[in-house]
Design a protein that fits this description.
binds calcium ion, binds MU-OXO-diiron, 26% strand, alpha+beta, nine-stranded antiparallel sheet
Length: 658
């Protein structure tokens, strides 16, 4: 979810729910920049010289020794940074819109008509704010498969005509007619689409395919794992605590080796109302730790469905904030919320099969001062029989990360019986309130953990920390070894190396790959490799992908003309060799949009990306349904901007970026 100015949805992501407990702050200067960062980074030599005279001399020497230019692993010609109404891709590539919000998904769905939207039409059409994308080959093919897409949230004021006239975005959303609230509920969730390349090489959605499916805020979903059936998951409508209607705010995700889609519920607090009921509840602290209800803005869903009123249904919010597993190959399968992976504001579910066969899922909790988690399955994956893995995610150990000085860290198990977790009554309680359990273990409070992905070739893990402007010099919210920059407006990327290349190990090493932002401004403290051009740097990393050749690609959320002079987009990033921390701009979003969901086909000839919330107001500018900042991708009077999935291919064929 992006930086929203009004309504301030992003304010909660950028406002802590974690009170913290005070950290020992050592030598700030030493922590601020590691020696390795200085040696390879683009910190102004003068700034280095002032803080680290000896290192500055080494830096100058290493610069002088730099020999012939080293070739980039990415062959494309870099795009110019900037921001306008359109999308742009590097020269020699095609970027074609595959499907837009409102396009037909189910057989018989009506065509998109912005003036005649309802729950009934939206339930059959592509949802709003496409985020994570996964591709599942059919018959092993890279030109025919199933595409799964998350629909994270809604921007009512630019979706529906008439509701925002003369109103702020908060007022427009708060006052919208109930029929449109019900339509917006159907715009959430996810889509499964059968897709293939036609004779002209262009991708298309197979019209009326039996695979095509919508999952929404009202789809029945099973609750499984240790918290299933727990009293805190029981409601009047579900006295067994095992079935919930819908999934909400599905941000990033993952795909499993056994062919399922992991889709992750993030900012679920925005859908629950009734602050008086929360204040009066004995569980007030538990609600507040999750930001329920949000302070400044909530979707008005409780007006049409009382389960979103905490007073009417105190346990409903405990049934959201999970990782959902869906089998896209079985259109009638019931999605499953896997409680063993914990309840928090999940960003994604990057994963790997460990060398001993256990399955490991890395997870970020996307809010400032929140944590990084991993789940290690108890059983080993069955590579011969996909169905044998159907409950693999129900048993295992959830860990939270503590990052220590000296580039070391430890995974702390969130397990009932641990002496520091004696306040919890059961493993289910620990999982439902995973944030509180992680607090008790002394996990490291991070600068908004977003996507985390594993490079299966090197075993290294990359975690995006998008930003944290509230990080301070000292005190409870002060810098720590792995979040070293106060007022971190532009984020950073960390690299985690598991001990012994064992993703189940509790020990790990860490390093900062890059601190983001404009490297030409010394005060920003960015550490892109000096080979990075003026177009090549970025701020606010959010999603990422690692391609079949082990190369890292970064999608951003939060750049803008005012902040960085550039729209969000997709950048390539070198992670090894002399060019480590060099990035290049490959794709640029239209104004107001963030970049999500980069996902490659196995042959690397297609890269699917999500353009989310084009035309959303940014930099304090107005952008409304009547007068949007862009009408991408249709550019037709009367049609609003539409979030869309874009298929990027190389003109004439070939691997992306090779
Ligand atoms: Fe939904 Fe973390 O962005
Ligand atoms: Ca985001
Ligand atoms: Ca995201």
């Amino acid at each position: 979810m992006t930086d929203l100015i009004d309504p301030p949805i992003d304010i909660a992501e950028n406002t802590p729910s974690n009170p913290g407990r005070g950290l020992t702050i050592g030598d700030l200067i030493e922590r601020r920049y590691s020696r390795r960062e200085i040696m390879r980074g683009s910190l102004a030599v003068a700034a280095v010289a002032a803080a680290f005279p000896n290192l500055a001399a080494d830096f100058a020497a290493s610069e002088a020794q730099a020999g012939t230019p080293v070739a980039s692993s990415f062959s494309f010609t870099e795009l110019a940074a900037g921001s306008d109404e359109r999308h742009h891709v590097a020269n020699g590539y095609d970027a074609d819109v595959l499907i837009r919000w409102g396009d037909k998904v189910l057989a018989g769905a009506p065509s998109f008509d912005p003036a005649a939207q309802s729950a009934a039409t939206q339930a059959q059409q592509f949802g709003y704010n496409n985020d994570f994308i996964g591709y599942f080959p059919l018959d092993g093919r890279s030109d025919h498969g199933l595409l799964v897409v998350n629909h994270e949230y809604t921007n009512e004021d630019i979706m529906y005509p008439g509701i925002a006239t003369g109103k702020t975005r908060i007022e427009a959303t708060r006052d919208m007619p109930t029929a449109l609230i019900e339509a917006a509920m159907q715009a959430h969730g996810g889509s499964v689409l059968e897709v293939k390349r036609g004779g002209d090489g262009k991708w298309l959605v197979v019209d009326g395919s039996n695979y095509n499916r919508r999952i929404t805020a009202t789809t029945p979903i099973r609750l499984s794992g240790p918290a299933s059936g727990h009293p805190r998951l029981k409601t009047k409508a579900d006295p067994h605590g095992t079935m919930v209607l819908g999934m909400l705010n599905n941000c990033a995700g993952g795909v499993t080796p056994w062919g399922t889609w992991l889709t992750c519920e993030e900012n679920i607090n925005y859908y629950f109302a009734n602050s008086d009921a929360v204040k009066a509840s004995p569980d007030a602290e538990k609600y507040e730790r999750f930001g329920i209800p949000p302070k400044d803005f909530a979707y008005p869903w409780s007006k049409v469905d009382t389960r979103f009123d905490v007073g009417a249904e105190p346990n409903e919010s405990n049934r959201f904030g999970w990782v959902v597993e869906i089998d896209p190959m079985k259109p009638d399968s019931v999605p499953v919320k896997r409680t063993a992976l914990g309840r928090f504001k999940h960003e994604g579910a990057g994963n790997t099969v460990n060398k001993d066969g256990r399955f490991v899922v890395y997870q970020g909790d996307d809010q400032i001062f929140e944590y990084i988690y991993k789940f290690v399955s108890e059983a080993k994956i069955d590579t011969a029989n996909h169905d044998a893995n159907k409950d693999l995610l129900d048993r295992g150990t959830l860990y939270v990360a503590r990052f220590d000085d000296g580039g070391r860290g430890e995974w702390l198990p969130l397990v009932f019986g641990h002496e520091k977790l004696s306040a919890f009554a059961s493993q289910a309680d620990i999982l439902i309130d995973a944030r509180l359990a992680a607090d008790a273990l002394g996990a490291t409070r991070m600068d908004r953990p977003e996507d985390i992905e594993v490079n299966s070739q090197t075993g290294k893990v990359y975690a995006m920390l998008t930003k944290n402007a509230k990080r301070e010099e000292t005190g409870v919210n002060g810098v720590n070894p792995v979040n070293p920059r106060p007022k971190n407006k532009f984020g950073h990327i960390i690299e985690i190396t598991p001990d012994g290349s064992d993703h189940a190990a509790t020990g790990f090493a860490w390093d900062i790959l890059v601190r983001c932002g404009d490297p030409s401004i010394a005060a920003v403290g960015a550490t892109f490799n000096p080979a990075t051009t003026a177009d090549g740097w970025f701020g606010t990393p959010d999603n990422c992908a690692i391609d079949a050749e082990g190369r890292l690609w970064i999608a951003t959320d939060g750049n803008s003309p005012k902040d960085t002079g550039r729209a969000d987009g997709l950048w390539s990033m070198e992670t090894a060799g002399p060019l480590r921390a060099t990035s290049k701009l490959f794709f640029r979003c239209p104004v107001g949009a963030e970049m999500c969901g980069p996902f490659f086909t196995p042959d690397m000839e297609t890269l699917f990306v999500s353009v989310q919330h084009p035309g959303e107001p940014e930099d304090g500018q107005k952008s409304t349904y009547d007068s949007p900042s862009t009408r991408w991708p249709d550019f037709q009077d009367g049609l609003p901007p539409r979030p869309s999935v874009v298929a990027i291919t190389r003109t004439g064929g070939g691997k992306i970026g090779a």
